[in-house]
TrEMBL record:
Pfam families: PduV-EutP (PF10662). The keyword Nucleotide-binding applies. One of its GO terms (biological process) is biogenic amine metabolic process. NCBIfam families: EutP (TIGR02528). This is EutP/PduV family microcompartment system protein. Belongs to the EutP/PduV family. The lineage of its organism: Bacteria, Bacillati, Bacillota, Clostridia, Eubacteriales. The keyword Repressor does not apply. Keywords: Nucleotide-binding. Gene3D superfamilies: P-loop containing nucleotide triphosphate hydrolases. InterPro entries: EutP_PduV, P-loop_NTPase. GO terms for molecular function: ATP binding. It comes from Clostridium senegalense.
């Protein structure tokens, strides 16, 4: 099983994805500090939105096998600087979240472009609401 560190802006769906991957009840919970689970490291959205926390992300990434950059496809802005994923000596994947809320394919493609610019090599489209893409991500992370 690969341990993944989830990074994304506030509201991108990191904690909800964590709950889904762990087959837990989906409920709102604001992540206040880095949370270590069996195979997931859930980071607060403030860590990507404030460069002062980048060092904490770099140090924490030593505990992960893969870095997951999350982007909410309904968000028209990107919070990741170009090449952000290059600061990690790990594989970097992109996770396009909330695909059930995108009313057209262009928004998903925009999210993919944001994630590629940030350094993601492979991108997963997911919706926790209708469970789309969750099994594919679990397979990649070797969660059985």
């Amino acid at each position: 099983m690969k341990k993944v560190m989830l990074i994304g802006s506030i509201g991108a769906g990191k904690t909800t994805l964590t709950q889904s991957l762990k087959n837990q009840l989906i409920e709102y919970k604001k992540t206040q500090a880095i949370e270590f689970n069996d195979f997931i490291i859930d980071t607060p959205g403030e860590y990507i939105e404030n460069r002062i926390y980048y060092n904490a992300l770099i140090v924490t990434s030593a505990e992960a096998d893969v870095i997951g950059l999350l982007h909410d496809c309904t968000n028209e802005n990107i919070n990741f600087p170009p090449g952000f994923g290059n600061m990690f000596n790990k594989p970097v994947i992109g996770i396009c979240t909330k695909t059930d809320l995108c009313d057209n394919e262009d928004k998903i493609l925009r999210s993919h472009e944001f994630l590629k610019i940030a350094g993601a090599d492979r991108i997963f489209n997911i919706s926790v609401v209708n469970n789309n893409g969750i099994e594919e991500l679990k397979k990649y992370l070797e969660i059985f």
